[in-house]
Every structure is written in C-alpha cells, then in structure tokens.
Amino acid sequence: PAFGLFIFTIARDPLRIIILIAGAFFWLVSLLLSSLIWFVAVKASDPQDERLQKGLLIFGVMFSVLLQEAFRFLYYKLLRKAIEGLVALSEDGCSPISIQQMAYVAGVGFGLMSGAFSMINLLADALGPGTVGIHGDSQLYFLTSAFMTMVLIFLHTFWGILFFHGCEHRRWWEIAAVVIMHLTVSGSSFCNPLYVGSLVPSYLLMAAAAAWAYLLSGGSAQNLRRFLLCKC
C-alpha cells in the first residue's frame, strides 16, 4: 500500500515525478556517504573485537540518520530556490506547486528509495542459503521486515512534511522532533529479533507523525470525518 502513494498522488504530474526522483537521489547519496564512512571505520578496526564492531554498527546507523536529515535540509534549500525560479517564470507570478506539496512529494521520494533498498536486502536474504528459523529463531523475519519497510515509507513521507514546515516557519523544534523520531525508529531495530520492540514503537510514532502532519497541512477533524463518510 505504501507504493500506492506514487500511483495515486504523483504519477500523473510530471513536475511531482521530477521532485520525487530528485528526493530519492538525495536519500541515495546520503546512504552512499554513510555506508562509505562505516565501511572505512570497520576496515580500520579489529574485526575480532565484537564489542567494537557492535559499537561501530550503532555509530553507522545513527550517523546515517543524521546524514539523511542533513540531506533533507539541503533538498529543502534546493526546492526553495526552485520555487523562486518557477514564480519568476510563471505568467501569473504563482508557483505551479506549493511548498507543502513539495514537502509531501520529497518525503515520498525519500521513503520509496528507503523501501526499495529494504526490499532488495530482504529478497537477497530470501535467496538463501539456509532456512529462516531453522535454529529456533523467529520465523516472522520476512513478515516483520515487510511491515517495517512499509512504516518507514510512511514515516519518511510524514517527516518530509514536518521537516519542511519547520524549515519554512523556522520552528527548529519541529526539525529536532523529526530527527529524534528518526533516531528512535532506527535505534529500535537493535531490539530485533524481539520484533515487538521495534514494530510497536515505530507504528505508534507513525500514527503520531501522521496526525501531526495532517494538522500542519491544514486538515481538521471535520474534514477527516467527511472523508471517512465519503461526503464531498
């Protein structure tokens, strides 16, 4: 269902597709840089020191989150300049897309690329060798990974809206909240294979971020009720 965001809300608008692809590229670059730094750190350390290797893994995850949010900020700056150019080129002096719409599309771009990489890693594990759970481990690995991929796509979408709103109105605490939520969700993955410890907090944060993003986008309880009742 997460990939339906692209089909139903973005696919018909060429400008939105461009913004989405650019957002996905920014997330990909952030992942490349963080992976490179983590790879160098691992190669420069003692591979026999398990405690050190675990510490480097935690450092790599946290650094990757911070780098992703830094690139989200850079992308906001780029889109802000793009809006100014679109306004200057338009005949009526108005941008064909608002900053709120850009925030949503950029968030979907980050989320879809993140989900794509999660699916690739999952499918690579599914090829074998071995069978999941053969040594008594949980057999819910693939199912929980799919649910985690979905929640990350939605979270990146909501985080994009919250982050851009914070940048636009200089509410730095909103940006800090996005970073903290991102760190929390990524850090909860270290609770695995106790999947309840990662899935439950992630979905609770997703619900909170969804409600927050909905209100910041101009939504109201009345509009939500009319939508659920299919009233125009």
Automatic annotation (TrEMBL):
Membrane topology per record: Multi-pass membrane protein
Subcellular location: Membrane
GO annotation terms (biological process): Notch signaling pathway; protein processing
GO CC annotation, single: gamma-secretase complex
Main location (coarse class): membrane
Domain of life: Eukaryota
Keyword terms, alphabetized: Membrane, Notch signaling pathway, Transmembrane, Transmembrane helix
Protein's UniProt keywords contain Membrane: yes
Pfam families the UniProt entry points to: Aph-1
TM region positions: 17-41, 56-75, 102-120, 140-163, 175-196, 202-221
Family the UniProt entry places it in: Belongs to the APH-1 family.
Role: Potential subunit of the gamma-secretase complex, an endoprotease complex that catalyzes the intramembrane cleavage of integral proteins such as Notch receptors.
Subunit structure: Component of the gamma-secretase complex.
PANTHER family with a match to the protein in the record: GAMMA-SECRETASE SUBUNIT APH-1 (PTHR12889)
Protein name: Gamma-secretase subunit APH-1
Gene assigned in the entry: Aph1a_1
